[in-house]
């Protein structure tokens, strides 16, 4: 059983999922325990090591993308009755938790993907997102990817997770309140960034990547559709191709920030029946939350976003030459 409990003083939700403590973990003191594909549950020919797939683009042992329910779900479809505290707010942890394995190759990381394969991955993510979103108990779908131990990765084989939840996270609720007043504050921000030209990391016809003005993490990136779009499910095929292009350019640069850098990719989405400007955040885990951050929820960042934008604007060959010096 899992459940959400809400902090009455901050409004933030905490998800308690006790069965997650039993999941396998391929890292020790944030260093990978070197494993080959012979012991990996996400590798081809180990399909019976996971739950049955809800999507697979080939036969067992010959697929490139595979999606299945998480064996250690943070939420699940089978709810149980429990006592309700008359002081605190809580909800049962009902929902769907899926894993999308985005490559059959054990040591391949997303920054190595070909353009066409990355585009296929995004299309399958969108398909599963839409399926989870239509569930009546789903208030919000969180799509995310953990890359590296410092980013919370537990299995080394590259994968995404999709979590359909009965609550709207407080961070999303606050972004809606602050960003969707008269018109869209995100649209206003995009127009401002295009005008000042200080924090644009990359741009094409449909998307713009910004190193946000008050970024929490060094080299953090927010990728927005240029037109106002409520959620990830509304992307057309052409727009998906443009999103692929900007990610295909930026992800190798993120991976080159330092050896074995950890980072998260998070889809910041609109809840059902809510106006929002969805976007994607890439969060390199350089540094990390310590006492000050945990006490104040105010992050210390060692890199100005203007300098981060200059880094991402460089040609990748120029970055490689600097690394070799």
Please, could you describe this protein's structure?
The chain has 325 residues and is α+β, with helices and mostly antiparallel strands. The protein has 7 helices and 15 strands. The termini are far apart. The relative contact order is 0.13.
Span between N and C termini? 54 Å
SSE topology string: EEEEEEEEHEEHHEEEHEEHHH
Number of helices: 7
Share of helix, binned:
25-40%
Number of strands: 15
Q: Strand order, biggest sheet?
A: 5-6-8-10-9-14-15-13-12-11
Which class do the helix and strand fractions yield?
alpha+beta
* Radius of gyration, in angstroms, nearest whole number: 20 Å
Shape: globular
Chain-averaged pLDDT: 89
Largest sheet: 10 strands, antiparallel
Key features?
325 residues; 7 helices; 22% strand; single chain; 10-stranded antiparallel sheet; alpha+beta
Brief digest:
This protein has 325 residues and is α+β, with helices and mostly antiparallel strands. It has helices spanning 115-133, 170-179, 185-196, 237-255, 291-296, 305-313, 316-324; strands at residues 2-6, 13-17, 27-28, 31-32, 55-56, 66-69, 89-92, 96-101, 140-147, 159-165, 200-203, 207-210, 221-225, 263-268, 279-284. The protein is 26% helix and 22% strand.
How are the secondary structure elements laid out?
Blueprint: E1 2-6, E2 13-17, E3 27-28, E4 31-32, E5 55-56, E6 66-69, E7 89-92, E8 96-101, H1 115-133, E9 140-147, E10 159-165, H2 170-179, H3 185-196, E11 200-203, E12 207-210, E13 221-225, H4 237-255, E14 263-268, E15 279-284, H5 291-296, H6 305-313, H7 316-324
Antiparallel strand pairs: 1-2, 1-7, 3-4, 5-6, 6-8, 8-10, 9-10, 9-14, 11-12, 12-13, 13-15, 14-15
Helix pairs in contact: 1-4
